[in-house]
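Model it.
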Amino acid sequence: MMIPAKFKHKKVSKGRVRLNPVRAGSRMIFGNYAIKSLDSARLTSKELQSAKKELSKRLNKSGKIWARVFPNIPVTKKAAETRMGKGKGNVEFWVFRVSPGRILFEVGGVDEKIAREALIKCGAKLSVKYIIVKSSDEDI
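Modeled.
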């Protein structure tokens, strides 16, 4: 499971997922093909871990994978049938807030057919709508 090694605050406020497109993290830097989100959502560490595992399984050491997102926001949950009050619950899982236009994973060093197939299988593990972009037609 992906969790940060160090963090400033153990528990944070819920916050909101932005609906407007992002500027930071919207351009490809490392690879030739990438998976880009089309809507906003909260991706859990389990989703991101399984997507990364699926990518590495499909590419089987022939290409390189760059994960551009990391779950850095703790989500707390109180136990079932607990009375009100007595503070905030324990940290249950970690999430990353994804906005539209954010690059999630990049792939390089493989041909287009293998990269597209791997990214489609990776996108099936994520709870966000996505498109696959190539470095030449990145301005979508």
